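Allow me, if you will, to draw on your knowledge of protein folds for a short while. I have a record of one protein: its chain in single-letter code and its fold written as discrete structure tokens. The full record is reproduced below for your convenience:
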Amino acid sequence: MDRLQSLTNLFSVEMNLADRIFGWLMVISALLHGFGSLQLLPLLSELQIWSLSGALAALLLGALHLMRVGRPHDRTLTLVALAGSVTWVIIALSFGVAIGNVLDPRALTHATVAFVLGVFAVRSLWVSRAAGT
């Protein structure tokens, strides 16, 4: 039984590491999005302001997920992070449709990272429910 428990603990540590990596990928994607908006769009244009607001939303979503990993029994935080991920997948894919290429790396990166973070959030809910917290 000790061997099974140690394997379970190792799996949990690896999953938490992967969860954090994807949280940081969202943060990095958001920062790159913001940097691209500042470099490529006319200063203080309507499009630049909206683009920067999207970068801020992605940055906050990444931060929520990084906090969620550190607070595994906070169901409210997990539910908010999950809702943000589902919404971000829809927004990213909608952007892909709007530009005529759902497989555009910008849309696909944000949608994929948000989807994976959503899966980790569901896993957190399931684990905390199984633990009775």
